[in-house]
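Internal ticket #5521
Category: modeling
Description: The requester needs a full-assembly model to guide mutagenesis choices. All entity lines are attached below as received. Residue total reported by intake: 423.
Assigned to: D.W.
Attached entities:
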Amino acid sequence: MSKEQKEREPLFSTKNIKLLTTPLNLSNPITVQVLGICSALAVTAKLMPAIVMSISVMVVMAASNVVISLLRNGIPPRIRIIVQLVVIATMVILVDQVLKAFVYDVSKQLSVFVGLIITNCIIMGRLEAFAMGNKPWPAFLDGIGNALGYGLILVVIAFLRELFGSGTIFDFRVIPQGFYDFGYVNNGLMILPPMALITVGVIIWIQRYYTRELIEEN
Amino acid sequence: MQEIFNIFIKSIFIDNMVFAYFLGMCSYLAVSKTVNTSVGLGFAVVFVLGITVPVDYLLNEYVLKEGAMVWLGPEFADVDLSFLSFILFIAIIASMVQLVEMIVEKFSPALYASLGIFLPLIAVNCAILGGSLFMQERDYQSVAEATSFGLGSGVGWFLAIVGIAAIREKIRYSNVPPALRGLGITFIITGLMGIAFMSFLGIKL
């Protein structure tokens, strides 16, 4: 620890880049750390809310990681959860007000799930696991990295569900009318909540098939 | 009276916290390895939801809503504090969990020992905050309705976690493809259970 602190690290050292990239695959918050599933599934019936949600989570996460990391030496361990919740809740209120002001429709679609970012385990989890013990800049990168990993999965699920469920991408029809004339039917099941779970299950399956080290012992 | 009962049934089966809204998934997936622990966590969730939803209802009704502060005097008629609801709800939940923990520890040490670490963790279970936020969004008419919604959601969550824990205990004996073991298969089973629960959608209450 002392050696690293003496030499000033460059802003994008290998270690810092790693903070950004490992959450995309090896320690993906959704498929590996199992954090933040709640909101991930509920907002993915369409691509647009999923993207807005990922951006909101990214903002909240990066900001609260930095704040907690700055405060980390002043927070008594016994009340740290309350302190963390207050910081997160403040950030979420800000994001919620911004969403209500600029993208009201999407904010209506997200309904309670913006508020639920507060209890999104991914944020608490990273605060506990990383921000409490690291300096602001790595904590910021960790927040961005994890939010990217979270957003990646969200966008993939939302893309599949919107494409097969409603035949649209960002509400533009992409499946040509000819297909429908030949009897192609949108798979209504994809829009329903349970299919989000099964889609995640399949994504986990594919990911673990290619990254063997993630496979669990029964 | 019938309305209250309807809300109770509806929040258990039709608007199930886990299968319809994916709330409380994190602890649902993490704690559902054995039936015993999941029963403990399930009870704790029912308990905490049953307390926090009515308390947050009163808070919403008499402090936060637009015009809710009228009881203080007519000059408060257009105070709208609803933007503060997130932070106040979470504060209520965190303190209620703390209170419940102390009460349980005092009066039923056996239950306390079996719930163990789960009680404090409930504060960050999204199902709890979700319960309060849905209560706010759906605009229930009385404390009784809010209470029955809270209890019903808790019971629905309880059913879901005990069900998945029982299935996971049995699935240990089957030959799941290696890459799907553990998390993957749990997701798929939950999805299938969700489809099964969707058959309740046809019930009109």
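Resolution: model delivered.
Comment from assignee: The mean pLDDT of chain B is 83.
Ticket closed.
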